[in-house]
Structures are given as structure tokens and as C-alpha cells.
Amino acid sequence: MTPDQLIAVARAAAAHAYAPYSRFAVGAAVLLVDGGVVTGANVENASYGLSLCAETVAVATAGAQGRLADIVALAVVGGPIDGAGDAPVSPCGRCRQVLNEAAQLGRRDLPVHCAGLTGDRIKTYRLSDLLPHAFGPDDLRS
User: Fold this and answer.
1) What is the value of pTM for the model shown?
2) 44, 55, 70, 101: which is the annotated catalytic residue?
3) DSSP 68-80
4) How many CA atoms lie within 13 A of 113 on its CB side?
5) Residue 103 · residue 63 · CB < 8 Å
6) What's the pLDDT at 58?
7) Whether 25 contacts 81, CB under 8 Å
8) Can 44 be counted among the known catalytic residues?
9) Which of 69, 73, 77 is nearest to 24 (CA)?
10) Is 39 helix (H, G, I), strand (E, B) or coil?
11) Alpha carbons 68 and 82: distance in angstroms, whole number
12) Which residue, 62, 61, 89, 85, is CA-closest to 75?
């Protein structure tokens, strides 16, 4: 699957965002080693700290399917629900750490494709560039 195709899947997922407080929809799509894709959308909560990011929802869904170590790439898109923004968004710090867990389990440096809800701009990063010197499962092994 190309980055453009994965971005399109993430944009479709963003349509399911529950973002009544921020009015900022985010969608994520994780590509699995067999070509399958798992998606997620942000789910906000009146108790803001309990909100869930789209990337975390997608990774947790893959984990619930026993596929956490099978993640090979991620696309994340986001922007105002009114569609007025096309600037690429990247995962927050918490999501970078969640992605790192899957990446270390799968022994991969994941490509992370970032885009807005609209527009053509895509920025691609390696997870190791977004989260240098990451802490993960290997740090707990002696």
C-alpha cells in the first residue's frame, strides 16, 4: 500500500472522530505486515484527560487482534472539523511512545506518514526521528 493510499484510509477514519470539544478530527491507519489495515479516530471525553488519540485507538485495536508486532507503517491525518486546514499533523508524544512499543516488538523503525484532512502535502518521518532515544521493552530486559 502506498503512503497516499494509507493517508486516504486515515482520512476515511477521521470521518468517525468524536471531537465535540476541540472540533479537531484525527484519523489514523496502521498497515500490517500482511497488507491489512487497522484504523482509529480520536474519541474525546468531557473529562479531557480521558480522551483517546486516533493513533492509540488504531494501535490498541491491532493489539486486541493479536497484531501489535505486525505493524509496519502508520498514517495520521488531522484538522479542524470544518475542513479549513491542510497542514500535516504528527503524532503527539504519548502516541509516539505507544507506536514505539509496537515498533520495538516488531523490530521495525516505522515510517509515519502525516497529512491534513485535506490537501496534497504529506510529510514522512521515521519513528526513530520523531522519538529519538526511545524507552521501550528492550530497556526492561537485562
Assistant:
1) 0.95
2) 55
3) GGGEEEEEEEEEE
4) 24
5) no
6) 98
7) yes
8) no
9) 77
10) strand
11) 33
12) 89
* Joined grid coordinates for residue 88: 500535516
User: Which is nearest to 59 in space by CA: 37, 26, 79, 35?
Assistant: 37
Backbone φ and ψ for 14, nearest 5 degrees, come out as -60, -25
- The CATH number for 81's domain is 3.40.140.10
* Residue-by-residue pLDDT tens, the chain, 142 positions: 999 999 999 999 999 999 999 999 999 999 999 999 999 999 999 999 999 999 999 999 999 999 999 999 999 999 999 877 799 999 999 999 999 999 999 999 999 999 999 999 999 999 999 999 999 887 888 6
49 lies in which domain range? 3-140
User: The C-alpha cell of 127 is what?
Assistant: 519513528
| Count of domains observed in the chain | 1
